[in-house]
Amino acid sequence: MFKIKRQVFFSFHYDNDAWRVSQVRNMGVVESQKLFSDNSWETVRRKSDLAIKSWIDNEMKWRSCVVVLIGAETANRKWVQYEIEHAWKEGKGIVGIYIDSLEDSTGKRSKRGKNPFDYFCIDTTFNYITKNSIPADSNEVRLSSIIKTFDSSYVSSKYVYEDIKNNIEKLIEEAIKIRNKYPK
Predict the structure, then answer these.
(1) Alpha-carbon distance 4 to 17, whole Å?
(2) 3 close to 71: Cβ distance less than 8 angstroms
(3) pLDDT band for position 37 (50/70/90)?
(4) Which of 19, 48, 52, 79 is least enclosed by beta carbons within 10 angstroms?
């Protein structure tokens, strides 16, 4: 059977989690966008919100799935929230992976972050997403009730890494199938 190597967009809190993200990104299991080097991110971040949105939109355009790598402060990041909202509107699969148990460059772990999908609701009858944690009517559901998050049951950073590596392809495929159940 022919396997498709999916192209994904990684969404994450750059300042806190770039080292952990590089571990996931370098697993070689999926194709992803180029991550900014520190200097490139500083350049883009200094530009207008419109320029940042344009970069995100362009990078996400040809991706089939957005993988939100969840660290301590990911859920509250403005651009992560924009990426989740944009991905849903564009019909992309979305999945969350907790990365707090992966060690950073100094061997430290992060605090557990909140589920970023708790802050959104979608309408099940048409393509609509809103930043609201409480459904407005019977057609709305919390995004966190349909988007899967992966949380390794292992304690050791090495085993967490392997667990993510062994599951990420399946998680991406499942995220795409879930998104295809809802209006685009």
Answers:
(1) 28
(2) no
(3) very low
(4) 48
